[in-house]
């Protein structure tokens, strides 16, 4: 990637069919959507001339100009508010939070203005709010957050948290085309660590659909984002011990794909939820409730969870490693669950 | 500030415009009077907020907008909604939570909008949030080539919020065609403006954003209209956002439940003597634009209309209970076909035409004088402190010449000789 000369060919980075990073996939999605539809604009801090703190929007300004790639003051509420207003005239703004932690600064705009508009006064707000999230890169307590559950608890928005370049691109495109506000979390640990060959033609990935990443019959591991990869790693280790774990990537947290979850539980009868979000109020609790309501008879063991600690994200590597879930923690929990 | 329109005397509006302003102020008040009755009959579900004594602001400012322009009301801007074309029945039904109301009972008060026809954005209860939203409306309109202006209102209390600052600063950086009416009614619920803002004039906040501002007598509908009209046209012409501080007074409590006993008697008496409708009526009569017969005709027209509107509202059903579960998400094109109305050539915003060199240019860099008199090495303006006392001095010595910026001359009507309504401009931009 990083063609150096960002003169903005939408296919740049994918032209020769080589594998692309998670970050490049997001960049391609924005390029292609802006190329496809002049209603799509990008707004955020340092997204234009600088190309974004992680260079996700590099080259967009060169190609699409000042009116479509808007550098803003450090004003998250203004970014979301303005994007909302723009969407009322039919535009489809993609807002960048420089780090997703800063979404707390515009919580009111998102939860009270943007999310409630369609329900209250029939005003859809087709905006996407995207940004780098998650820990494991020693970003400290204000650059590592996983604030997805604040918004899963907000009727009116959709919440996406992909784990692969293919999904990141396809889901971001789907988010741009969706008529609802969509929060799009990009785990920054994945940005440059994984690569994948992407189709050259236009594609989307449907919002609200989970996917089975690994088939298994002894237990189901439900996960998403960076922890999906950690779960797969644990599943491989489990396989050596004769435990076949099914690994499901939730991909979208709101709306949650209950059908795929319930199908898997019917087969394995045991569920382990793994998320990097903190434990209390994490999606695992919601899944536990859904399984109690709809699959109680299918369960042969307690729903178990491996999550981060109920603390802020600490800075020191020793502390952060202790804070985060790991393949080993998942492996141990799965083994315990398999004994039921 | 002293009265008022009567002293102005200049007939720069058409007779019809003068009478329109009178009609809408009367309608505004009559709609709210009707709602007080409904409230006392327990037919209003939630709170009822009044704009008694502030009608000139809502009506005068919204009357300056064109049909294609956008507005977003606050709680005390029923008058603006009526001017923009909202039917009184919709206002009644909103308050009564009826199924035929714009939000079908999902929200009350002035919390409703109309994206397609009237171009109204619904407010939320959190103050200041409309400012960046309407800035976004303004720049989207510009992007689509629609030449629109966006307008919203904020109170003295709301001007203390963080999003007021974020929104106005962003609008200023974008030079958005946006007009913000700051209704200084002296009270934020029970807290007087002095305890919220250590400024004599809230319009001074404009200085912080490098934008133009005006101060106007908010109880003078003609002054309000003319000021808003000039602001709207300047914004439309590309001069950037404009802040108008309208000085007024909240005659009733925060809402119906609040007797507002915290307001000093003499303050209330002072403002009650300056009722915007009575003042305007006096002016119209003295200018022979209205007589007793004409007044009666307008009042009868309003009465007849509101009787009809009220009947309709009262006969509308409550929403069916299960309707609560519907409508959280847009379900796609069948639900809403979202299509911008392009009034410019789309090719201008598509490559190759849209492509630019991604380099910051800083106009005027290095041309400013440093405090030592030499060329400023790092700033792009004067490195000496700005004369912050300018406005206060102006206030103390009203003869100080008024600086103006922009292409239009600063001819502004005035209520106190040359002073009460001042053209205020910030000289240094960028």
Fill in the keyword field for this structure.
heterodimer, A: 340 residues, alpha/beta, Rossmann fold, 2 domains, 7-stranded mixed sheet, 5-stranded mixed sheet, 12 helices, 36% helix, globular, B: 430 residues, two-stranded antiparallel sheet, 13 helices, disordered N terminus, disordered C terminus
List the helices and strands and how they pair.
The complex is a heterodimer of chains A (340) and B (430).
Chain A: E1 20-21, H1 22-36, E2 40-44, H2 60-64, E3 69-71, H3 76-88, E4 92-96, H4 107-114, H5 117-121, E5 128-133, H6 148-152, E6 158-160, H7 165-177, E7 182-187, E8 195-196, E9 211-214, E10 219-223, H8 226-240, E11 245-249, E12 252-254, H9 258-268, E13 271-278, H10 283-294, E14 304-308, H11 317-323, H12 327-338
Chain B: H1 5-8, H2 15-40, H3 55-62, E1 70-72, H4 78-84, H5 88-96, H6 130-143, E2 150-155, H7 162-174, E3 178-184, E4 187-188, E5 191-192, H8 205-209, E6 212-217, H9 221-236, E7 242-247, H10 265-272, H11 276-286, H12 292-315, H13 390-396, E8 423-424
Describe the structure.
The complex is a heterodimer of chains A (340) and B (430). Mean pLDDT of chain A is 95; it is low at 1-15. Chain A has helices spanning 22-36, 60-64, 76-88, 107-114, 117-121, 148-152, 165-177, 226-240, 258-268, 283-294, 317-323, 327-338, and strands at 20-21, 40-44, 69-71, 92-96, 128-133, 158-160, 182-187, 195-196, 211-214, 219-223, 245-249, 252-254, 271-278, 304-308. In chain A, 61% of the residues are buried. By secondary structure, chain A is of the alpha/beta class. In chain A, 36% of the residues lie in helices and 18% in strands. Chain A has twelve helices and 14 strands. Chain A has two domains: 20-196, Rossmann fold; 211-338, Rossmann fold, CATH 3.40.50. In chain A, the strands form three sheets. Chain A has a seven-stranded mixed beta sheet with strand order 3-2-4-5-7-6-12, sandwiched between helices. In chain A, strands 9-11-10-13-14 form a five-stranded mixed beta sheet, with helices on both faces. Chain B has 430 residues and is of the alpha/beta class. Chain B has one domain: Rossmann fold (3-Layer(aba) Sandwich), CATH 3.40.50.970. Chain B is built from 13 helices and eight strands. Chain B has helices at residues 5-8, 15-40, 55-62, 78-84, 88-96, 130-143, 162-174, 205-209, 221-236, 265-272, 276-286, 292-315, 390-396; strands at residues 70-72, 150-155, 178-184, 187-188, 191-192, 212-217, 242-247, 423-424. In chain B, the strands form two sheets. Chain B has a six-stranded mixed beta sheet, sandwiched between helices. In chain B, helix 2 packs across helix 3 (55-62), helix 3 (55-62) packs parallel to helix 9 (221-236) and helix 5 (88-96) packs across helix 12 (292-315). The longest helix of chain B is centred in the N-terminal third of the chain and has 26 residues, at 15-40. The radius of gyration of chain B is 23 Å and the shape is globular. Chain B starts with a helix and ends in a 6-residue tail after the last strand. Classes of the chains: A alpha/beta (340), B alpha/beta (430). Chains A and B meet through helix 2, helix 3, helix 4 and helix 5 of A and helix 6 and helix 7 of B.
């Amino acid at each position: 990637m990083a063609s150096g000369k960002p003169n903005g060919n939408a296919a740049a980075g994918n032209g020769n069919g080589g594998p692309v990073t998670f970050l490049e996939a997001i960049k391609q999605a924005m390029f292609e959507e802006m190329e496809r539809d002049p209603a799509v604009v990008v707004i955020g801090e340092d997204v234009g001339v600088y190309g974004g703190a992680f260079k996700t929007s590099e080259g967009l300004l060169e190609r699409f100009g000042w009116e479509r790639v808007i550098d803003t003051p450090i004003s998250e509420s203004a970014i979301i508010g303005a994007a909302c207003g723009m969407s009322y005239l039919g535009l489809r703004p993609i807002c960048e939070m420089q780090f997703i932690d800063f979404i707390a600064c515009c919580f009111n705009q998102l939860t009270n203005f943007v999310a409630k508009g369609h329900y209250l006064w029939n005003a859809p707000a087709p905006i996407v709010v995207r940004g780098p999230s998650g820990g494991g890169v020693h970003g400290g307590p204000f650059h590592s957050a996983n604030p997805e559950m604040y918004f899963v608890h907000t009727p009116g928005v959709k919440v996406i948290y992909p784990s692969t370049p293919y999904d990141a691109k396809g889901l971001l495109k789907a988010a741009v085309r969706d008529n609802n506000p969509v929060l799009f979390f990009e785990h920054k640990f994945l940005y440059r660590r994984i690569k994948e060959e992407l189709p050259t033609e236009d594609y989307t990935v449907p919002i609200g659909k989970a996917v089975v990443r690994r088939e298994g019959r002894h237990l189901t591991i439900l996960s998403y984002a960076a922890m999906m990869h950690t779960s797969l790693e644990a599943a491989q280790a489990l396989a050596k011990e004769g435990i076949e774990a099914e690994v499901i990537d939730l991909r979208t947290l709101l709306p949650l794909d209950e059908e795929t979850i319930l199908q898997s539980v019917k087969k394995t009868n045991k569920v382990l939820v793994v998320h990097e979000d903190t434990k209390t109020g994490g999606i695992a609790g919601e899944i536990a409730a859904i399984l109690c309501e709809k699959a109680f008879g299918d369960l042969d063991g307690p729903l178990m969870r491996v999550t981060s600690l109920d603390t802020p994200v600490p800075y020191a590597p020793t502390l952060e490693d202790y804070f985060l879930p790991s393949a080993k923690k998942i492996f141990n929990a799965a083994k315990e669950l398999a004994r039921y | 500030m002293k009265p008022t329109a009567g002293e102005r005397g200049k007939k720069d509006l058409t007779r019809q415009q003068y009478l329109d302003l009178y009609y809408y102020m009367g309608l505004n008040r009559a709609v709210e009077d009707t709602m007080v009755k409904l409230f006392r009959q327990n037919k209003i579900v939630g709170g009822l907020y009044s704009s008694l004594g502030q009608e000139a602001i809502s009506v005068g400012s919204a009357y300056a907008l064109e049909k294609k322009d956008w507005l977003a009301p606050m709680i005390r801007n029923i008058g603006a909604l009526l001017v923009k074309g909202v039917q009184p029945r919709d206002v009644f039904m909103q308050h009564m939570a009826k199924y035929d109301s714009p939000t079908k009972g999902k929200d009350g008060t002035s919390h409703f909008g109309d994206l397609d026809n009237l171009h109204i954005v619904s407010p939320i209860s959190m103050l200041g949030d409309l400012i960046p939203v309407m800035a976004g409306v303004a720049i989207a309109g510009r992007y689509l080539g629609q030449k629109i202006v966006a307008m919203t209102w904020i109170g003295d209390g709301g001007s203390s919020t963080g999003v007021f600052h974020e929104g106005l600063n962003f609008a200023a950086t974008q030079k958005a065609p946006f007009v913000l009416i700051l209704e200084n009614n002296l009270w934020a619920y029970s807290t007087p403006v002095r305890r919220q803002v250590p400024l004599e004039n809230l319009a001074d906040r404009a200085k912080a954003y490098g934008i133009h501002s005006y101060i106007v007598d908010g109880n003078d509908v003609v002054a309000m209209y003319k000021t808003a009209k000039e602001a709207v046209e300047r914004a439309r012409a590309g001069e950037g956002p404009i802040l108008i501080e309208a000085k007024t007074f909240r005659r009733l409590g925060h809402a119906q439940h609040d007797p507002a006993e915290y307001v000093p008697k003499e303050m209330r008496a002072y403002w009650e003597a300056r009722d915007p409708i009575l003042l305007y009526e006096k002016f119209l009569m003295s200018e022979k634009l209205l007589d007793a017969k004409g007044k009666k005709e307008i009042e009868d027209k309003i009465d007849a209309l509101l009787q009809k509107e009220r009947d309709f509202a009262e006969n509308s059903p409550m929403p069916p209970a299960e309707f609560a579960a519907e409508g959280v998400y847009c379900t796609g094109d069948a639900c809403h076909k979202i299509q911008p109305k392009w009034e410019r050539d789309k090719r201008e915003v598509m490559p190759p035409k849209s492509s630019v060199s991604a380099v910051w240019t800083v106009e005027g860099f290095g041309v400013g004088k440093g405090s030592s008199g030499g060329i400023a090495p790092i700033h792009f303006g004067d490195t000496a402190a700005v004369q912050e006392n300018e406005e206060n001095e102006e206030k103390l010595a009203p003869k100080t010449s008024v600086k103006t910026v922009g292409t239009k001359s600063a001819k502004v009507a005035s209520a106190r000789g040359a002073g009460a309504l001042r053209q205020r401009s910030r000289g240094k931009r960028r």
